[in-house]
Design goal:
The complex is a heterodimer of chains A (about 375) and B (about 800). By secondary structure, chain A is an alpha+beta fold. Chain A has three domains: about 130 residues, Uridine Diphospho-n-acetylenolpyruvylglucosamine Reductase, domain 2, CATH 3.30.43.10; about 120 residues, Uridine Diphospho-n-acetylenolpyruvylglucosamine Reductase, domain 3 (2-Layer Sandwich), CATH 3.30.465.10; about 110 residues, Enolase-like, domain 1 (2-Layer Sandwich), CATH 3.30.390. Chain A is built from 14 helices and 17 strands. In chain A, helix 12 packs antiparallel against helix 13 and helix 13 packs across helix 14. The longest helix of chain A has 22 residues. Chain B is an alpha+beta fold and about 800 residues long. Chain B has three domains: about 170 residues, Aldehyde oxidase/xanthine dehydrogenase, molybdopterin binding domain (Aldehyde Oxidoreductase, domain 4); about 180 residues, Aldehyde Oxidoreductase, domain 3 (Alpha-Beta Complex); about 325 residues, 2-Layer Sandwich (Aldehyde Oxidoreductase, domain 4). Classes of the chains: A alpha+beta (about 375), B alpha+beta (about 800). The interface between A and B is large, with 48 and 53 residues.
Chain lengths: ~375, ~800
Amino acid sequence: MICDSKTDAIRARQSAVRVDLRAVCASSLECAPHPSAPFVNVNCPAVLRLDTTLPAEGEPLSWFGTLGIRSFCGRQREEKDVIPGAFTYHRPSSVAEAVAILVSHGDEARPLSGGHSLIPMMKLRMAAPEHLVDLGGIADLKGITDDGSTITIRAMTTQHELIASDLLAQKLPIIRETALLIADPQIRYVGTLGGNVANGDPGNDMPALMQCLDAAYVLTGPDGERDVPARDFYEAAYFTALAPEEILTAVKIPVPPAGHGYAYEKLKRKVGDYATAAAAVVLTLDGGTVTFCSIALTNVSDTPLYAKEAGEILTGSTLDTATVARAVAAAEAITEPASDGRGPAEYRTKMAGVMLQKALSRAATRAAS
Amino acid sequence: MNDMTPTREQREAALEGMGCKRKRVEDIRFTQGKGQYVDDLKLPGMVFGDFVRSSHAHAKITKIDASEALKLPGVIAVLTAEDLKGVNLAWMPTLAGDVQMVLADGKVLYQNQEVAFVVAENRYIADDAIQLVEVEYEELPVLTDPFKSMDPDAPVLRPDLDGKTEGAHGPRKHHNHIFTWEVGDREETDKAFEEADVTIKELISYHRTHPSPLETCQCVASMDKIKGELTVWGTFQAPHVIRTVASLLSTIPEQKIHVIAPDIGGGFGNKVGAYPGYICAIVASIVTGVPVKWVEDRMENLSTTSFARDYHMTAEIAAKNDGTVTGLKVHVLADHGGFDACADPSKWPAGFFNIVTGSYDFPAAHLEVDGVYTNKAPGGVAYRCSFRVTEAAYCIERAMDILAQKLDMDPADLRMKNFVKSEQFPYHSALGWEYDSGDYHTAMRKAMDTIGYRELRAEQKAKQEAFKRGETREIMGIGVSFFTEIVGAGPSKNCDILGVAMFDSAEIRVHPTGSVISRMGTKSQGQGHETTWAQIIATEIGIPAADIMVEEGNTDTAPYGLGTYGSRSTPVAGAAIALASRKIRNKAQMIAAHMLEVSEYDLEWDVDGFQVKGNPQARKSMKEIAWAAYHAPPPGMEPGLEAVSYYDPPNMTYPFGAYLCVMDIDVDTGVAKTRRFYALDDCGTRINPMIIEGQVHGGLTEAFAIAMGQEIRYDEMGNVLGASFMDFFLPTAVETPHWETDFTVTPSPHHPIGAKGVGESPNVGGVPAFSNAVNDAFKFLGSTHIQMPHDAWRIWQAAKDLGAHG
């Protein structure tokens, strides 16, 4: 059989990536342009040397979440590029301006936030946007506000800023706990909440947490804003409800009751790794009985998983061994992990259960009874 | 003498000689980002080369069409095997006596194999052009399992060897067979097994991994067509050999080739061999007449340039009921990938694997190694170990544990019972080596006492009971490892590389003011030679280390040497340095005698100069003598003060050590936590204890990585899995255990300063310590042997298979 040339493979991959990659990634671009030249052609220098592989034809683009090897044309193949193609760099100063650029370039444009997903994908030539729209110059996209019942985090708020926020530490401490388990300090200084939740990478930690917290994403497009619940946002790996000309501008989180218990348990091979499996738990207790329990799982499917049934099983229980075992089984049942370097699917499913068990027990000890 | 005269101790301290924890002088530039690496080099007019690589593990190439790539502005050339044939370089010889394609010649044998070399004005254009080169493949059946390599119907990987029944190391018995290497006495060993009370047999695999230095392989080649001179800057652990090979291959006279290895960001064996990138960059520079840079990316490095290990070892031990070992039989199936590009001394197809009797007094032993081809990348380098020694140490240290288990003996006690005794040295092993010196019992006892071995065993027993009662989900393992290394390749009687004997060299020149420039045939990749070499000279000739400059890596200025790998620098070049220093001291003694108007026999050496015996006030310091050597040498004596030494070692050196690892394992997640790791090293005389400690830390960290997850895996289609730092386990400071280091000192009797080498010991001894800890933890559940690597999911799997999950 005569297989396709590398070129065709790359092109096929690029067009596939274009459809779903509305990622807001973050900007370790060393080639930030002069302020007076908001519209310049640059070749991005090779900053990161992250390597990955092409996904299978017809298989969901879950490669970046798992970074295993995926098959192509019946076989797997490695991709070796570390240098992106040429692109035009935009740095708008308002959301409206950014949306206008997206509208005028359609599929050829990508928003850029922290860049920790998009830039490596460009270096691997798995994404080749002709127009890169850097959201780093939009002051409006920064900040955390509290209106009493809802906390709003603007999309370009970095993981480091989440960790440093007294407001979050007091009212949503699980965000700090989770952010501290993401990558390493250098990446957290640059990586943003918006980028983490918007690009649909099942390996990211914030999407499951947002599902656990029942957050809503504010999507801003040419026709204005719309809110989409985190639990409805993710369709498949890198496929989300975000339209090509929309930008995820904020995350709204209902404030859980004071005295709630919480835990984010993540099993990973090393610092900087995506989860083998992770579980987010928020619960409330009344006299030892669970009055509310929300559970979500990270990186054990091609989307984050809101484990609705597991939470329902536990509600009304005293977290007795038998009920916890039933809830863990219910949570394990909805997982569909990939087999990769982190372990075979069976192991990762079991680890989702173990992480859930640990998270439940830690959340219970933290909850006011 | 007045109060200002420094004391003897002060003069000694001022030298910062051997035994001093001298800070590494090279770190001044390294820690400030001021090292000068190959990729820092930018020459006028320099262009860039990059590879089109195979997506297939085994395929015929039916067409390569570069026409679209050549149309791209900025693309200068696209080289294929056809172009290289014009200069007779489509194939190159390997260090192991095989030949290897430089660019795919009609077929590819492993994924990511080099297919075409694109030369362009910059890296971006080169990468754009790669996308435009169209290659048509016709797939062939893929062979990745070495156990199937010699099946009768196995696909033919190397049609170029068709009909060749004789390889570089003897007869070939199958079309995918490379060599059989046999050592020892088969009959006597069989007899030991027939008469044994107890025997064990186990397949112990050491998986494929990779040295993965942080700086990948790279070079800049610059051909000056007017002068007919070629300069190559590259990541070379052995620059002189590279120049010789380049001259032989290119037919450019050796004096017109200048090979320069600048600062190197780690080697670990990865930078010993010659790779297609070097050849293509050189050819491209010859073709274009401008400098050509080639820099490998991470995935290329992990997936193509030199894997390590991939040894499948079936070990058998015969023993008496009291634990005395009587025989060892080992068969190795060695997976060499598509070409045999193993980096061993030429006559040693399995390196020094015959050190596999380890630290134990086996009266009889037999070893047989079969090398085979598979559709995997070539290599088989000594990843921070002397040639195949880490495989051998892993094999014997696991096998001894398995024997202890069968005999229901403590693994440390079994080792103590069978150690070669200190009075047996020099010890002749059943597989042909002469161990120079050792005191194994003392080292092992010190290790056991320091860590509290018996108490740990008691704690382990209590934990096992608690586990059985369901009170804990954690189990505990104690890993014992006692290794004997064989380093310092090597004596010319048995070691050469492509015919060049494996000596090494030093050249030392004392300037009139008493400062020194010294050059060696070795090449540091981070080992700290600039610091330690100066310390040897300082002690030997009494000039402060701070006044001694050490240079390596430039073939125009440095004396010829075989380079740095296999812990050979201190055993070989270190000896050359001491001997060259002594030549200088001998001449200095004659000059001092002339200056003091006494006979040289009336003089004695004292720290940093010569003094008259019985009259220490009458003395001349080396600084004064150096000035005299240029100003007023004795009549009839040549002026100047310099010396050269080429050292051919009489024997290898045999460093050893006792390592103990205490590990706690959560059976529900498979997560293993190293509670303690104690490493006692005996590397003979210690030149710089701080550098030794750093070497041990680094080697242990690599050992930890290898044992606990670092792996280059292939699927059955020949796709290389995990060839990125996302999956290839490179531990950070967070994952790395705390290291407790210790030492004993048993000098080498044949080395001028008694030093044995240490850089690789921690990798050799560390891997079995970790693996034995994991295996030890599961022993009480009925497990005999769990294969490496021991990453969390595999440990979980082992626990599950043993019924530990209920």
